[in-house]
Design brief:
Layout: E1 11-12, E2 25-26, H1 29-34, E3 40-46, H2 49-60, H3 67-81, E4 87-92, H4 97-103, H5 107-119, E5 127-129, H6 141-147, E6 152-154, E7 165-173, H7 177-188, E8 193-201
Parallel strand pairs: 1-2, 3-8, 4-7, 7-8
Antiparallel strand pairs: 5-6
Helix pairs in contact: 3-5
């Protein structure tokens, strides 16, 4: 099995998107135009081939035993891409009520809890889903941004992290619109910086 790990260099310093042939960090055109609300993001894999199969098995087919391997990869990436000494808590991306009913679990909460234990940073649920947005799959990039507006609410305990940095854990990053809206909601509750880490990313590299 060959897993398509994302590179550790030549990345947008905000969204973590890779650009072939570039060294160091830069700010990509998309982040300059749309200014995502999260401050930094990183992903372990590109969502393709064996990585896609593993993530889908974990997310949709109850293969929760994969959390240990994924948490190992997330820990390694987090230690390289983030200053963990600044992170006050790890925040799982909340799932919608229908998804929890269908799957019986929130895969992001499982990942966040496992990562929390590895790095010794507390895991706290600071967000909940609200409203009933359309599925993001199949929507254009702009429609995705519009679709997620107002779909999160901060829980009361988020105020305890006013001015602090939190690390949001999600399974897949596509355009980053969901993570950006989650970050916007956390910042509206007073959180200082929002960093994000995901198992996989489905966007192609920049050309």
């Amino acid at each position: 099995m060959r897993l398509p790990f994302t590179p550790v260099d030549g990345l947008c310093r905000r969204c973590g998107r890779a650009a072939a042939g570039l060294d160091g960090e830069f700010l990509c055109e998309d982040c300059r135009c749309h200014r995502p609300q999260y401050d930094r993001a990183a992903s372990v894999f590109r969502l393709e081939n064996d990585a896609r199969d593993l993530v889908n098995a974990f997310k949709f087919r109850d293969r929760v035993h994969l959390r240990s391997d994924f948490a190992d990869f997330l820990e390694g990436l987090a230690r390289v891409r983030f200053r963990l000494s600044e992170v006050a808590c790890i925040v799982p991306m909340p799932s919608t009520t229908p998804h929890r009913w269908l799957r019986g679990y929130n895969q992001c909460a499982i990942l966040a809890s496992a990562l929390s234990k590895r790095v010794g940073i507390p895991c706290r649920a600071l967000l909940k889903r609200v409203g009933n947005p359309a599925r993001q799959g199949g929507l254009s990039e702009e429609d995705r941004r519009v679709n997620v507006v107002g779909t999160f609410a901060a829980l009361r305990k988020a105020s305890a992290f006013a001015g602090k940095t939190v690390l949001v854990v999600d399974d897949i990053m596509t355009t980053g619109s969901t993570l950006s809206e989650a970050a916007k909601t956390l910042k509206s509750a007073g959180v200082g910086k929002v960093w994000a880490i995901t198992v996989a990313r489905s966007l192609r590299e920049l050309l």
